[in-house]
Design a protein that fits this description.
heterodimer; A: 467 residues; alpha+beta; eight-stranded antiparallel β-sheet; 14 helices; 23% strand; globular; B: 260 residues; alpha/beta; Rossmann fold; seven-stranded parallel β-sheet; two-stranded parallel ribbon; 10 helices; 9 strands
Chain lengths: 467, 260
């Protein structure tokens, strides 16, 4: 019966972020084009609506308990690439689809986060960064225009020149300024689907940082994997840096297939894992193997795009290995000059009461004009932890937040799932500027998310009554 | 909202003067809760007791709430959610123990106690459930009691009201499946509080702090029920099955505190 189907479709759905923590029940709709996005926003319930892409933000940015969630993955059109490398795509188009469409034509996405399974809209809302931030900046630097469905029902197109204020408020704006229905991106020309990669294994954190300070500028891409579980030398790691390989770097036999990019997902994590699977011993064992597997030094190795940019994507749903409690990622940035703070944070996290499962260090370059975008010039550290409740991990991360704030740094909202509300303003000094724009485009608060409520991002959710 | 590490941002205590309710709020505040709303009959008295929570860093508000005034529950609770925003944890802590022999002399008093413990909890519980459903998340902590597991000669008015409450809470927990919200049923044994002051302690006595610690842990585990102390679960598994004459003797011995 059609009536039954409608009823089933309207049942609330429990949603979480990639970390699989803090579920909330949301009404999910699946708009297929901009007009349906507009209609959904117009009829949003009192608790508002928020766009969701592929659900890769770690915390609660793309869920809205008791409210509406617009699953935008239906807006996945991909236009043709212009001569200068401009391409117009739907807000729900996955970067994976986009790169598979454009690599064969000799183009690549200008900024790749650690997974290819994010949508263009999500990449804009979090203003994602990649291994090339020190050189190329964040994702929105390469967006030449975005078309937004505003909460007012209006659909408008903004560029860094025309409507710059709304453009940059949307960059890193966590979806709270409007729904990205379309965007134009400037692609990067490439000659092959490979990169030429230099690898260095480092003895400790100091050596890792020294190498990055000296050499990063010579590479487009740079990232260090760190081992925080080594007893002898926490912070030892594997530094990989490189750039896109010219066709001439490929063996003659494979040059004709230089742009033949077909990434595959090789395996899937089991549907269920015990919550104790990721523990200090298992992580230490994994890290030891990973560290030893890396060459002490290797130069100009050919690595495929998927191996270099998205090693974790090789396993589908790898977030399930943490079991039903889920996991979280602590990602912060501290400005250059605060190296002492960075060392302090690394040692705190290494000694945390939960296993630091996966740790990545990289250097950020210039910040974007966005008031809420995460990257600022400095060191960014990202550490995955099992979401060990009642373990004291919350207190350790709170202490790290303090150190970060005192150094003039911040925590990444797209990863956060536990930060204290009172630190937000200290981390994001341009918050009020952003809130002013939000109040203008969304005076009736039709856009809302659990993240917004938890941190009072928009500054509109303070209790009506005070004690 | 409760974050990835189980930290509740805001808590509502219905029965805000209850020792156990305040102890639970204290535990959650120590963990990072920033907003506590105490709802009860004596806002002035609650405000005094709220000081510890404020010192620990919480914003505390008090609102008038009478568990016996069933007609007002829905409005009062809806207003609390409207005024203070979402609650991650709501503690249903009100209840009266009463005196069994006095109840037997004055049946109307017994009826009123049952109205508070059971009927009041049903209407307040359903009013809270409505709000939790609307926010798509949150936990309702219901203070039941082992006294509801099997009625005893010396407290069957109280015990029967808790039996009703326990059954209600279990049913509500089922009703909320898939809503993002949930229920935690707390079944303490004898707890030393102002409610039980002057009574002889029974076996498996605990303190309000013990109950609060068990609740915090159960919320972390997303458990549906918790016994305080934990071994009471097994004790009552047996006690429920005992033939009445045998149970009568066990109950009488424990009432006289012979195990102490």
């Amino acid at each position: 019966m059609p009536g039954e189907e409608a009823a089933a479709g309207s049942a609330p759905q429990l949603l979480t972020g990639w970390g699989r923590t803090s579920p909330s029940a949301c009404d999910v709709v699946h708009p297929q084009h901009a007009a349906e996005v507009r209609a959904a926003l117009q009829t949003a319930p009192p608790r508002g609506g928020i766009a969701r892409g592929l659900g890769r933000s770690y915390g609660d940015a793309a869920q809205n308990g008791g409210g509406l969630v617009l699953d935008c993955t239906g807006l996945r059109s991909i236009g043709s690439v212009s001569g200068e490398g401009l391409v117009t795509v739907g807000g729900g188009a996955p970067l994976d689809d986009l790169s598979q469409a454009v690599v064969p034509q000799g183009w690549f996405i200008p900024v790749s986060p650690g997974t290819r399974f994010v949508t263009v809209g999500g990449a804009i809302a979090a203003d994602v960064h990649g291994k090339n931030h020190h050189r190329d900046g964040s994702f929105c630097r390469h967006v030449t225009s975005m078309t937004l469905a505003l909460p007012s029902g209006e659909v408008c197109t903004v560029t860094p020149e025309d409507g710059a204020e709304l453009f940059w408020a949307t960059a890193g704006g966590m979806g709270l300024t409007g729904v990205v229905v379309q965007a134009t991106i400037r692609l990067l020309p490439v000659q092959s689907r490979f990169l030429l990669v230099d690898t260095n294994r480092t003895r400790d954190l100091d050596e890792t940082m020294a190498l990055m300070e000296q050499g990063d500028e010579a590479y487009r891409y740079s990232v260090a994997w760190l081992d925080l579980t080594s007893r002898r030398s926490p912070g030892r790691g594997v530094l990989t840096r490189g750039d896109h390989a010219p066709a001439t770097a490929l063996p003659a036999s494979s040059r004709s297939r230089a742009l033949d990019y077909r990434p595959r997902t090789r395996l899937a994590a089991p549907p269920w894992a015990p919550p104790w699977l990721v523990n200090r011993l298992s992580v230490r064992t994994f890290n030891e193997v990973w560290f030893r597997k890396a060459p002490a030094e290797r130069r100009a190795e050919l690595q495929s795009i998927e191996a270099f940019f998205y090693p974790l994507d090789a396993a589908a749903a790898w977030n399930r290995v943490y079991g039903r409690r889920g996991f979280l990622q602590y990602q912060c940035v501290v400005p250059f000059g605060a190296e002492e703070t960075l060392r302090h944070i690394v040692s705190k996290l290494a000694a945390a009461p939960a296993a630091p499962a996966l740790t990545v260090l990289k250097r950020f370059g210039e910040a974007s004009p966005s008031p809420l975008s995460f990257p600022i010039p400095g060191w960014t550290l990202a550490v995955d932890f099992p979401a060990a409740r009642g373990s004291g991990l919350d207190a350790v991360l709170d202490e790290c937040d303090r150190l970060v704030v005192d150094a003039g740094g911040r925590v990444y909202l797209a990863k956060d799932a536990r930060m204290r509300q009172d630190l937000l303003r200290l981390m994001y000094p341009h918050l009020d500027e952003w809130r002013k724009i939000v109040r203008r485009v969304d005076p009736h608060r039709r856009l809302a998310s659990d993240l917004d409520r938890r941190l009072d991002l928009t500054g509109t959710r303070r209790a009506r009554k005070q004690g | 909202m409760t974050d990835a590490l189980g930290r509740a941002r805001s808590v509502l205590v219905l029965g805000g003067g209850s020792d156990i309710g305040l102890a639970i709020a204290g535990r959650l505040v120590a963990r990072g809760t920033r907003r506590v709303v105490l709802a009860g009959r004596h806002p002035q008295a609650m405000a005094e007791r709220a000081r510890d929570l404020q010192v620990a860093g919480a914003d505390v508000a008090t609102i008038p709430f009478d568990a016996a005034d069933i007609g007002a529950h829905e409005k009062t609770i809806a207003a609390a959610f409207a005024d203070f925003g979402d609650f991650d944890v709501v503690v249903l802590a009100f209840g009266v123990l009463g005196d069994q022999s006095a109840f037997e002399q004055e049946p109307a008093a017994a009826g009123l106690a049952v109205v508070v413990n059971y009927a009041g909890a049903v209407s307040a519980g359903l009013a809270v459930a409505k709000q939790l459903r609307a926010q798509g998340r949150g936990r309702l902590v219901v203070l039941s009691s082992v006294a509801g597991q099997r009625a005893r000669r010396d407290n069957f008015v109280y015990g029967s009201s808790k039996a009703g409450l326990d059954a209600f809470a279990l049913g509500l927990s089922e009703a909320l499946r898939g809503s993002g919200a949930g229920v935690l049923i707390v079944r303490p044994g004898f707890v030393r509080t102002k409610m039980t002051a002057g009574r002889p302690p029974a076996p498996f006595t605990s303190s309000s702090e013990d109950v609060a610690a068990a609740v915090e842990d159960a919320l972390d585990r997303e458990a549906t029920a918790v016994w305080v102390p934990a071994k009471l679960r097994w004790v009552f598994l047996v006690l429920r099955l005992l033939p009445q004459p045998l149970f009568r003797r066990v109950a009488a011995r424990s009432a006289r505190g012979e195990h102490q």
